[in-house]
Design brief:
Layout lengths: L1 H14 L7 H14 L7 H16 L7 H7 L1 H20 L8 E5 L6 H4 L15 H4 L7 E2 L19 E8 L10 E7 L10 H6 L17 E5 L6 E6 L4 E6 L24 H14 L11 E3 L2 H7 L11 E7 L1 E2 L2 E4 L7 E7 L5 E8 L1 E9 L4 H9 L18 E8 L3 E11 L2 E13 L13 E5 L2 H8 L12
Parallel strand pairs: 1-14, 3-15, 11-16
Antiparallel strand pairs: 2-3, 4-14, 4-17, 5-6, 6-7, 7-13, 8-9, 9-12, 10-11, 12-13, 16-17, 17-18
């Protein structure tokens, strides 16, 4: 309260410095208003607008007033000014963190998320996570990512007439590391509150005279679609429930070629440079007042170039019509990754012909509940899980590592760094978004003779999360050898 009072007094003295002589009386008035604490939320721009209005109003008050009666004479105006400033100050400085441009975290009690506790097998031993337990984990046979096709006999061997299959074997090559915290906070995305109470009249008018929407029980607006007119207009999809917005090119508004033309395959030189891609994306974000306070510098996604470099006949490689760029999300100064080791955040595609943003997605509110959960501190178990491919295990059961039908390709993993995993947990016909403290194991060298899109291996540090995902089906990575 004291901080709010000082803030309000500072605003008042800016309006009229002579009011400083009545500071103690003003404090009493302000305290009474703050005790009322009206539940009004004001943003910073509205605060500044009100402040300028009050300053302009104060400047018009030039009537001579005897000093001893000044406070009394101005009491109605002053009280109104105090009330407005108090409302603004209370709204700005005391409201819960709901700034959509920042990452807002609301602490809750430990192990508060039922989506984890209801599905975690109680019998799972933390020391047996991964292959072979903790003692033998680093030296145990490492699971492989294998190709589909053919069959595996009960003995674990493949028939000799089955074509050879390339398999990926993750091997840890990094330095020693440790996990010092016995518990860390898991974040759960807070869905945007329904705003139907603020726009009920709008809902009621959407019946188009064909139906009385007031007759339905508490209808809500979950999504809104907007269409921008004019050349290169956008379709804008607003998910009010999930708190996200996406932009897509409205191709009906996009200028077409003036004359018919035949398709000409692209070449790498026809795409905008990485520098131009980043600049175009940043210009779009600035133009539409999209704040990137919680995001890192733009990073260009050029996965297709790996296939292009590995393919002898370049004409057989599809070159996309656009270049993707991502502004990676950062929480507590750590990046957020998906299960494939890609950084997540605001993504955009820059069209190669128009050199304009053709789509933008991943723009979302970042409000979370946080709850402490126990961590896995045994580094051997963590390494074993990383060598299995992370929470989505690579398929390896029944595979004969020595079979002539397998061609093992070793993929080295480096020393992990801290980050977060964005995980989706299905529950009650919806998926809940969790942000999970994790270790990110970088791929030191990707296979050079075939496509390999995994950027890193992500291992959650939370036992309950690993338990939850261990029950999911394994991921099978087909990779037949020619």
């Amino acid at each position: 309260m004291k901080e709010n009072i000082e803030t309000i007094l500072k605003e008042l003295f800016a309006i009229d410095p002579t009011l400083k002589a009545h500071e103690e009386k003003l404090r009493v008035i302000i305290q009474d208003i703050i005790k009322a604490r009206p539940h009004v939320v004001f943003d910073e721009s509205f605060k500044q607008e009100l402040k300028q209005h009050l300053l302009a109003h104060a400047a018009t008050m030039q009537k001579p007033i005897r000093q001893k009666n000044r406070l009394l004479t101005l009491a109605p105006v002053l009280l109104g000014a105090i009330a407005i400033i108090a409302l603004v100050a209370i709204g700005v400085f005391n409201q819960p963190k709901t700034n959509p441009w920042n990452v807002d975290i609301i602490p809750t009690q430990e192990r508060a998320f039922n989506i984890l506790s209801q599905t975690s097998p109680a019998s799972t031993d933390i020391n047996t996570l991964g292959m072979g337990g903790t003692e033998s984990a680093p030296n145990a046979p490492t699971p492989l990512g294998v190709g589909a096709g053919g069959g595996i006999t009960k003995s674990g061997t493949r028939p000799s007439d089955i074509p050879a299959v390339d398999v990926f074997k993750y091997v840890y090559k990094g330095d020693d590391f440790s996990v010092d915290q016995s518990s860390l906070a898991v974040l759960k995305k807070v869905r945007s509150p329904n705003i139907d109470t603020q726009i009920k009249t709008i809902i009621q008018s959407l019946g188009l005279g064909l139906v009385d929407l007031k007759t339905f029980s508490n209808p809500t607006i979950e999504s809104v679609s907007l269409t921008e007119s004019g050349n290169f207009g956008y379709s804008i999809n607003i998910d009010l429930n999930g708190g996200s917005i996406a932009f897509y090119q409205n191709w009906q508004q996009a200028p077409g070629p003036t004359t018919p033309s035949t398709y000409t395959p692209r070449t790498p030189d026809s795409l905008p440079s990485n520098q131009d891609v980043a600049r175009i994306a940043q210009d779009f974000i600035s133009q539409h007042n999209i704040k990137t306070n919680a995001y890192g510098d733009p990073e260009i996604i050029n996965d297709w170039r790996q296939i292009y470099a590995q393919t002898e006949n370049k004409s057989q490689v599809y070159i996309p019509d656009g270049v993707e760029v991502v502004f990676p999300l950062k929480i507590n100064d750590q990046y957020v990754y998906d299960e494939s080791g890609n950084k997540t955040g605001i993504s955009a595609t820059i069209n190669a012909d128009s050199h304009r943003v053709s789509s933008l997605w991943g723009l979302a509110t970042q409000t979370y509940q946080s709850s402490l959960y126990s961590t896995i501190q045994d580094t051997n178990a963590i390494i074993a899980l990383a060598q299995e491919g992370g929470i989505r295990k690579l398929y390896s059961e029944g595979l004969d590592y020595e079979s002539p039908n397998t061609n093992i390709i070793e993929v080295p993993l480096g020393t992990p760094q801290r980050g977060y995993l964005k995980a989706w947990i299905p529950t009650d016909n919806v998926s809940e978004e969790l942000i999970v403290p994790s270790l990110i194991f970088p791929i030191l060298q990707a296979p050079s003779n075939q496509p390999f899109y995994q950027k890193a291996i992500v291992v959650p540090l939370i036992k309950d999360v690993i338990d939850r995902f261990q029950n999911q089906p394994p991921v099978i990575t087909p990779m037949m050898k020619e």
